[in-house]
Amino acid sequence: MVRLPERFKQNMQTLLGDGYEAYLRSFEEGRVSGLRVNELKVSPEEFERIAPFPVERIPWIHNGFFVREEDRPSRHPYYFAGLYYLQEPSAMTPAEILPVEPGDRVLDCCAAPGGKSTELAAKLRGTGVLFSNDISNSRAQALLKNLELFGAGNIVVLSEDLRKMEDRFAGYFDKILIDAPCSGEGMFRKEPRVIRAWEEHGNAFYTALQKQITDSALKMLKPGGKMVYSTCTFCPEEDEAIVLYMKERCPSLHVLPVEPRYEGFSEGLEEAGGVRDPELRHCIRIYPHRMRGEGHFIALLEKRVTEGNAGDGPGVPLEGAERPEEDRGFRQPAVPGKVRKADRKAAE
Which residue out of 109, 110, 182, 232 is catalytically annotated? Predict the structure, then answer.
């Protein structure tokens, strides 16, 4: 049994109410593993027919399958041929929900090691362009490796601070995915070592990073564009409160309902930080005692076209003014103890 911090247990009891005991019992269950089929190379139906080990469809992921760890799918030739990506089922949800279409200009803000970027690239079908960014250079190299393995085309892999990108790519992207650095509470069952980072840093450390990242992403999202913000934590300060923060910073931003809505998805909290907003109910919370997956939070957002922003973007000013002296060379700080939500194995 994983030893959970008392403060965390108190928070979850307040959050879940009568469901708290069922949540605790979920720690007695085995971890859930999955794979997502690379539709650039094989259809889900064809893969199900040729699968060399037992697979079971993930109801809310159109090309996802539950697999058993004992079958060692990471050692099969299909894996090294890029026919599938190993990823925890809940972590597949953000890229599934973002409605990428062929021809879109897409940004994956915190992309390594590539679990979500590979799916976004597959949705583009070799058209448009995908910018996959990760602040860590070493992780960006793993990201590039996985995208190449998948046969992804029209990609740009970056290792850059988003603040250095926001002016040059103002209003440029049709779709943006932010799988934000977070306290990882949803991963406590799968990665118990994340608990130590939570105890050392708490939630406030991550909310500062999340606000910084979302500020830049909002500037790069074109009017009419859509964005997914996701975390693997249950903390409202990192989830619904960040959505409220984005809406305050960008009044034309709205939370969209996700359709179809899988029956195991829980609604977002309508109130966060003392502020009530009915749109927050459109957010999705995934709890391990209600679905076969780890904890996750997802919000689908749209930056609507208004009279005030109709003329903004798209465009890439290649020659922009210098930033103030104090901003030059800024690097987003590394996140101590961060575990990238169950797709770490794909980077190995």
Answer: 232
